[in-house]
Every structure is written in structure tokens, then in C-alpha cells.
Design brief:
The complex is a heterodimer. Chain A has a single domain, classed as HUPs (Rossmann fold), CATH 3.40.50.620. Chain A is of the alpha/beta class. Chain A is globular and about 70 Å long. Chain A has six helices and 13 strands. In chain A, the strands form three sheets. A nine-stranded mixed beta sheet of chain A has the order 11-10-9-12-8-1-6-7-13, with helices on both faces. Chain A has a two-stranded antiparallel sheet with strand order 2-5. In chain A, strands 3-4 form a two-stranded antiparallel sheet. In chain A, helix 2 packs across helix 5 and helix 3 packs across helix 4. Chain B is α+β, with helices and mostly antiparallel strands. Chain B has three domains: 113 residues, Butyryl-Coa Dehydrogenase, subunit A, domain 1; 110 residues, Butyryl-CoA Dehydrogenase, subunit A, domain 2, CATH 2.40.110; 152 residues, Butyryl-CoA Dehydrogenase, subunit A, domain 3, CATH 1.20.140. Chain B contains twelve helices and ten strands. In chain B, a hairpin with a 2-residue loop joins strand 9 and strand 10. In chain B, helix 1 runs parallel beside helix 4 and helix 7 packs antiparallel against helix 8. The longest helix of chain B is centred in the middle third of the chain and has 37 residues. The radius of gyration of chain B is 21 Å and the shape is globular. Chain B starts with 6 loop residues before the first helix and ends with a helix. At the A-B interface, helix 5 of A face helix 1 of B.
Chain lengths: 263, 387
């Protein structure tokens, strides 16, 4: 099974500060980590390999320093790592990013499953994974919390997956090759091993430019990014609810009053 | 302080720190309350290759030395002294095989211990032979191709959980300590059983049990070194392992200091954080300086051993004595800084004080170690004056 895991290097904080003048993230002085949701995708990739055999390749688009994130993935047991890095990619929005990643994955050859974290903690868009699936014309399932099985159905391989939805979860059969984004409920990521860390130090990272993946100029970087950022702001904090205390009938009465006031 | 660690040593330390902080610390209080040996954590340490950091690569280890072992032990102790000693005691049980094992014995036992598939334990102490190890009563009688062991060892860390045991027993009682020999035992050998798990003050997740030998048949091939070398092997083992206990004490001290420092910044009294008061500041400064001094001593001795120096008895004893006395002082002060909260089990700091105490006792009480240090000093001084 050829397993591709897409990761993103992000600043190590959930409280990213924003430059109010340029509307961009302030990254100075903030350490970089693998996007936490992507660590679950890496773990699931490794587990799929352990269950079904094959190879796990991790891919990212980013500046040269994103190599550190790839090496960390190698230390966890990933077989191969690809860095898409080119000045031409600068300024990419989710559409251009998913295009570049899709082109990189195409160049890698045969693929059975693409795994992504449900979203990145810096942008929180949750668009790149689904974008890749569209560019590659693949079925997709988002917010997957369990990959139950891989079955053969009339000569085609199918994953049975559980995906989280607001009301509970859905069970879907997704034909391979497919793209899945995963949630943190899916597994508990492993710790790196010393041998893995030693290996990752020496591992060769494949580096591809825009030309290497035959990316069309109009689809990458600023030219390929229709998104216009008007304003970035922290959403208003949700107000805490009111807890009702007392005997059951008192609570019921009070609740009734509250509901009446709302109507 | 920068100890000029190599890139690999930093890697080892950081991995141990990550595991300790993310996996051990969150469950340290629960393990303490449950008094339970944690196989899941041992398995995690094994999968991360940490059991083999000090073992040669040809036996499946990572090829580091005592310093690497100390770095891991220190980091684990910062989160839980009990988990750290389960880890370090496996090294204590392995050291005699590294020191005196034949190539065949090393090939047979070290790979499983390096990978952590099995853990080890060391058995010297007996009910009537503590500091006076020469008074041991456990016997090993030669019988054809075997030795027959009879007697008991007690307070054995990893007892019952370990698969591989290095045991010291008397092959010739008439010769005193020169009549002791060392053996490699395996769990499950006929006549080898375990007593109950001890209910301890601290380091509670570690397993401490009695080992009972009743006509236990051990193959001759499992004799470590020659007959009569058991006592000297035990002493050489301690020279190598005491920095590990020192590292455990060091980690406990650092962990308590971390907690006290954080608490003193948050705790408000008289409208100010208590860390702004001179009384607390002086305590924090002393705790930090003493802990750093202990670290310098521990890393220094570890490097001395790793460079091939075998005359380290005095320095090893100094590191263990100083670091463990430091741990007791620092953890006591950490509880003091927490005040009444510090005395409550709901807060993490009292556990560090309970865990610290044992480091002043095992692998040579600090009184015995002072004796060892002074004897070496006097011997060196005598030798110098004769020149």
C-alpha cells in the first residue's frame, strides 16, 4: 500500500499573534513544530503500513527549514520524505497549496491513500486536504476517527471509515485511492526512537521545485491564489453558559422561564 | 550550565525528557497511589531504544556510556523517581555482565537487555547483610555441571518483574568475602521464587521483592567471572552504577526545584508572589546552586568512567553521596516553599521528598560512602607521603 501523508510546519503555539498592519502571522521567535493534527495522520500512516504493508511517504510544501519537520517524521518511522520548496510557491493560499501538493503526489507515482490532519493550527482552514482530493479527482472523507478495515469489493479496494459529524459519526466505504483527513481521536501518536532519530539525521530528503513537479505558473504562488485576506481577527470568546442548581422541579421551572424569555 | 554534550547525548536527553514530561509526569501521582509497576512505560522506554543507550552497538545497544544512562535517569526522575529506578536498576543488573561476562554470556543476555525486551535486576542485599555485604548467607554449592543456590535476597529492585538476575552467593563461606561468586539467573529456573512486593515510602511504582532460592539449579555456564570474584565484581558494579543513583537523586532534586519555582511565582501572599520575598529567594538560589553542583559531579564521574578510567570508587561514592544529600535537602525545601499545600498529597511535591529519601540509603548508605571516600583519601595521602 502506497501511503502519502501531507504535513505542515507551523509555529509552536495556538495563540498566534497577528501583525495588524499586514494581516499576516508573526512567526519571529516562535519555534516550529509539525502541525499537531498532522502527527495523527503520520501515526495512522505508520499503522496502515503495519497492518497492510507498503511504504509511507511524507510530503510538505514550505521554506527550506520545513526540512526539520520532515526529519522528525522520518524519526517516527516514515520511509521517505519530500520537500516542495521554491520561491514561486510563496504566497500560496489553500487552493495553490493543494495544487502544488497534488502535483508532488502525482510525481511520486502510484498512491493508495493520502492522509492529512483535519486542519492546521495556524490557519484553521481545513481546506488543503479536500483540495488535494479535488485536484487529483479522488474520493475523500474528512474528520475520520477510525479506519476499520480494507476490503475488496468487485476487484476494487475499499476502506471502511468512521467520520465524525456534529450529531455522532458516519460509517462510509471509500474506494481507493482516496484522501482522508483525520481527527485526534483516531490514535495516539508514538514517540520517536533513538534509532529512528539517528536514521533521520542521515536520511536524504527529496527536494522538488515548481519545475520538478511540472506545476503551471498560473496555479501556484500568488497567481494561483484567489483568496484575498480582508482582515484577520481573534473571534469573540463564547460566553460561558449558566448552570442551574437545586431540586429537579426548581431547575425545570427556571429552565421554563428562561425559554419563555427567549420566545 | 553548558556541559558540552555531544549532539547524540542531547538527542538522548531530549527524547528522555519528552517521554518523561509527556508520558510519565501526567500519571506519576496515579502510579504512586496505585503502587503499581508500569509495564506500559517500560515498553515505551524500550521502543524508544532508551534501555540500550550505554550498551555496545555489537550487542544491540546505542554505543553510549554511563553519561547517556545518567541523562536518561535524570530526566525520568524529574517526572517520577520510581519509574527512573526501574529503568536504572535494569542497568545495575546488566553492569556485572558487561564487566565480567564472557563473550558467550554477553551474546546471550545483552541484546535482550539492550532492546528492553527483558529487564534485569541485581541481588546482593540479604536480611542480615546490608552494609555488611560480606556477611551474606546465601550459598551456591557446586554439583557437577551446576551450582545449587539456597538462601534469600531481599529489597531487590525489579524483583519479580525482571527476567535476568545477577546474584551474588557464597561458594566458600570459609573465605569470607573472597568466597563470594556471581551468577546469572533467569526467572523461571526451578527453585527460584519471589516474595511479596514491599510497601514502600517512596519510589512506589518500582517493584521491590524478596528472591528465594530453594535448591535452585544454575548451570555452570552462568557463573560470572571466576569463583571467589563475586564480591569484587559487586564493588566494581557499584563504582559503575552509583553515578546512576546520583543521577536519579539529581533528577528528583531538579523536579522538585522546577515545581517550587513555578509555585513561588504563582502563589500570592501579602499581595505579591512569594518568589519576591527574600526568604524564598535565598532558598531557591541555594536549591538551584546545590542541584547544579550535583550535576557537575555526576556528569564528571560519568565521563571519567566512559573514558575508560577504572579507579573511580571515591569519585563515584562522592557523586552518589552529594547528589542524594542534595535531593533530600532540595525536596524538603520545595515542600517548605509550598507550605501547607506541599504537605498534601493533592500536590505533587511531597512525593519528591518521599522519593528522595531512598537515594541516601541504597547502593551504599551515605554513611558507608563517607567511610569509602575517607578510606580512599587516607590511602592516597599515605601513598603520596611515601614517595
Amino acid at each position: 500500500m502506497n501511503i502519502i501523508v501531507c504535513i505542515k510546519q507551523v509555529p509552536d503555539t495556538t495563540e498566534v499573534r497577528i501583525n495588524p498592519e499586514t494581516n499576516t502571522l508573526i512567526r519571529d521567535g516562535v519555534a516550529s513544530i509539525i502541525n499537531p493534527f498532522d502527527t495523527y495522520a503520520i501515526e495512522e500512516g505508520l499503522r496502515l503500513k503495519e497492518r497492510f504493508g507498503g511504504k509511507v511517504t511524507v510530503i510538505t510544501m514550505g521554506p527550506p527549514q520545513a526540512e526539520t519537520a520532515l526529519r522528525e517524521a522520518v524519526s517516527l518511522g516514515v520511509d521517505e520524505a519530500v520537500l516542495l520548496s521554491d520561491r514561486a510557491f510563496a504566497g500560496s493560499d489553500t487552493l495553490a497549496t493543494s495544487y502544488a501538493l497534488a502535483m508532488g503526489i502525482k510525481k511520486l507515482g502510484e498512491v493508495d491513500v493520502i492522509l492529512c490532519g483535519k486542519q492546521a493550527i495556524d490557519g484553521d482552514t481545513a481546506q488543503v486536504g479536500p483540495g488535494i482530493a479535488i485536484w487529483l479527482d479522488m474520493p475523500q472523507a474528512t474528520y475520520v476517527k477510525k479506519i476499520e478495515d480494507c476490503k475488496e469489493e468487485s476487484g476494487k479496494k475499499v476502506f471502511r471509515v468512521h467520520r465524525m459529524v456534529e450529531e455522532g459519526h458516519e460509517v462510509l466505504d471509500v474506494p481507493l485511492p482516496c484522501m482522508l483527513t483525520v481527527v485526534k481521536e483516531i490514535n495516539e501518536p508514538r514517540m520517536p526512537s533513538l534509532k529512528g532519530m539517528m536514521r533521520s539525521k542521515k536520511a536524504e530528503i527529496i527536494k522538488w521545485s515548481a519545475a520538478d513537479i511540472q506545476a503551471e505558473e498560473e496555479n501556484i504562488g500568488l497567481d494561483g491564489s484567489p483568496t484575498q485576506v480582508m482582515r484577520i481577527f481573534s473571534p469573540e470568546q463564547r460566553k460561558g453558559g449558566e448552570m442551574l442548581h437545586g431540586e429537579v422541579h426548581e431547575i425545570a421551572d427556571r429552565l421554563q422561564d428562561v425559554l419563555k424569555e427567549l420566545i | 550550565m553548558d556541559y558540552l554534550l555531544t549532539e547524540e547525548q542531547i538527542m538522548v536527553r531530549d527524547l528522555a525528557r519528552k517521554i518523561a514530561q509527556e508520558k510519565v509526569k501526567p500519571i506519576a501521582a496515579e502510579l504512586d497511589a496505585k503502587d503499581e509497576f508500569s509495564w506500559p512505560l517500560m515498553k515505551l522506554l524500550a521502543e524508544s531504544d532508551l534501555f540500550g543507550v550505554y550498551i555496545e552497538e555489537k550487542y544491540g545497544g546505542m554505543g553510549g556510556g554511563i553519561l547517556e544512562l545518567c541523562l536518561v535517569t535524570e530526566e525520568l526522575s524529574r517526572a517520577c523517581g520510581g519509574i527512573a529506578v526501574s529503568y536504572a536498576a535494569s542497568a545495575l543488573g546488566t553492569d556485572p555482565i558487561i564487566l565480567m561476562g564472557t563473550e558467550e554470556q554477553k551474546q546471550k543476555y545483552l541484546p535482550d537487555l539492550a532492546s528492553g525486551r527483558k529487564i534485569a535486576a541485581f541481588g546482593l542485599t540479604e536480611p542480615n547483610a546490608g552494609s555488611d555485604a560480606g556477611a551474606m548467607e546465601c550459598t551456591a554449592k557446586k554439583d557437577g555441571d551446576h551450582y545449587i543456590l539456597n538462601g534469600t535476597k531481599h529489597f531487590i529492585t525489579n524483583g519479580g518483574e525482571a527476567e535476568t538476575y545477577t546474584i551474588i552467593a557464597m561458594t566458600d563461606k570459609t573465605k569470607g568475602s573472597r568466597g563470594a561468586s556471581a551468577f546469572i539467573l533467569e526467572k523461571g529456573m526451578p527453585g527460584f521464587t519471589f516474595g511479596k512486593k514491599e510497601d514502600k515510602m517512596g519510589i512506589r511504582p518500582s517493584a521491590t521483592r524478596e528472591l528465594v532460592f530453594t535448591d535452585c539449579k544454575v548451570p555452570k555456564a552462568n557463573l560470572l567471572g571466576k569463583e571467589g570474584q563475586g564480591f569484587i565484581l559487586a564493588m566494581k558494579t557499584f563504582d559503575m552504577s552509583r553515578p546512576g543513583v546520583a543521577a536519579q537523586a539529581l533528577g528528583i532534586a531538579q523536579g522538585a526545584l522546577d515545581l517550587a519555582l513555578e509555585y513561588s511565582r504563582q502563589r500570592q501572599q501579602f499581595g505579591r508572589p512569594i518568589c519576591s520575598f527574600q526568604g524564598i529567594k535565598f532558598m531557591l538560589a541555594d536549591m538551584a546552586a546545590q542541584t547544579e553542583a550535583a550535576r557537575g559531579l555526576v556528569y564528571g564521574v560519568a565521563r571519567m568512567i566512559d573514558s575508560g578510567n577504572t579507579k573511580v570508587t571515591k569519585e563515584s561514592a562522592m557523586a552518589k553521596m552529594f547528589a542524594s544529600d542534595t535531593a533530600m535537602r532540595v525536596t524538603t525545601d520545595a515542600v517548605q516553599i509550598y507550605g501547607g499545600y506541599g504537605y498534601m498529597k493533592e500536590y505533587p511535591v511531597e512525593k519528591f521528598m518521599r522519593d528522595a529519601k531512598i537515594t541516601q540509603i541504597y547502593e551504599g548508605t551515605n554513611q558507608i560512602l563517607r567511610d569509602v571516600i575517607a578510606n580512599n583519601l587516607i590511602k592516597e595521602s599515605l601513598a603520596a607521603s611515601k614517595k
